[in-house]
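Researcher: Quick test of sequence recovery. Tokens follow.
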């Protein structure tokens, strides 16, 4: 069974013009009707760092989950964010970006790697006490723009260390700057999935519009069954060298899986309506 994770938070967070709360609520409520495995809907981080997500708690309070099986995932960057998110019963998952790049970890969560390990331990405890699932995003899993040492074996070793130290059951390999290739994707997933059968190894891939299919195909053929995407490919990392680099377009992924004869279990009428709504949410 394919698990599709829709990421409106990732799509929205870099937009400078504030998206009205009413618009966010209407859009995410429509996404809840689609039947995605998980919705990465918001984040509990400093509003100074990510102003677009300052209304996450209000958005959450107005979501209608009637009849929806989708899990709600909130991104957090530290213990404070984890505690804030954990007070909300409706949140199912806490997502923490753990970068295997020291420099990116400093920029993204204001901590070095060893500090981040302690942070994961604390967040794991908070998640356990509040009944939340911890999802770790392994940032910079496919490359490094800062001249630091990078190799697929480094990503594999960090996956092993995080799993063995904290029993994390969901780890999403993240192509933060769109640097992955079919070869690197195949190498990582085909190595890690058999090595950690108890872990859901997901793909959070960024891409230019012309390369999404080769990346999705490589991950799928290597055994990946959890894929993150965003309608129309909005979002992505602002540090990517190519401004066209964004999230994998969800509609393209669904076309790919349909061509493979894979049933995603999604309500496509509800999805088509969400695609129509997206033009009112995101500036073109």
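Model:
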């Amino acid at each position: 069974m394919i698990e599709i994770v829709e990421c409106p938070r990732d799509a929205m967070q870099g937009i400078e013009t504030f998206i009205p709360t009413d618009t966010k609520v209407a859009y995410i409520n429509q996404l809840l009707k689609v039947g995605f495995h998980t919705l990465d809907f918001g984040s509990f981080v400093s509003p100074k760092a990510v102003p677009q997500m300052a209304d996450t708690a209000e958005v959450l309070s107005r979501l209608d989950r009637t009849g929806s099986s989708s899990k709600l995932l909130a991104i957090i960057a530290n213990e404070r964010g984890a505690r804030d998110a954990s007070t909300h019963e409706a949140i199912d998952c806490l997502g923490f970006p753990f970068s295997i790049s020291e420099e990116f970890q400093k920029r993204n969560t204001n901590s070095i790697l060893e500090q981040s390990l302690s942070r994961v331990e604390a967040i794991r405890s908070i998640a356990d006490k509040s009944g939340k699932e911890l999802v770790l995003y392994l940032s910079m899993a496919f490359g490094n723009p800062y001249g630091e040492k990078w190799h697929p074996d480094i990503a594999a070793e960090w996956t092993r260390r995080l799993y063995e130290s904290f029993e994390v059951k969901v780890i999403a390999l993240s192509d933060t700057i769109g640097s992955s290739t079919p070869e690197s994707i195949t190498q990582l997933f085909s190595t890690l999935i058999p090595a950690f059968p108890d872990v859901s190894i997901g793909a959070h891939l960024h891409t230019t519009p012309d390369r999404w299919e080769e990346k999705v195909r490589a991950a799928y053929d290597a055994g990946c069954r959890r894929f993150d995407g965003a309608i129309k490919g909005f979002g992505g990392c602002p540090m990517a060298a190519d401004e066209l680099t964004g999230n994998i377009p969800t509609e393209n992924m669904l076309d790919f899986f349909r061509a493979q004869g894979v049933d995603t279990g999604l309500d496509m009428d509800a999805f088509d309506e969400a695609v129509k709504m997206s033009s009112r949410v995101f500036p073109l």
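The chain has a mean pLDDT of 90.
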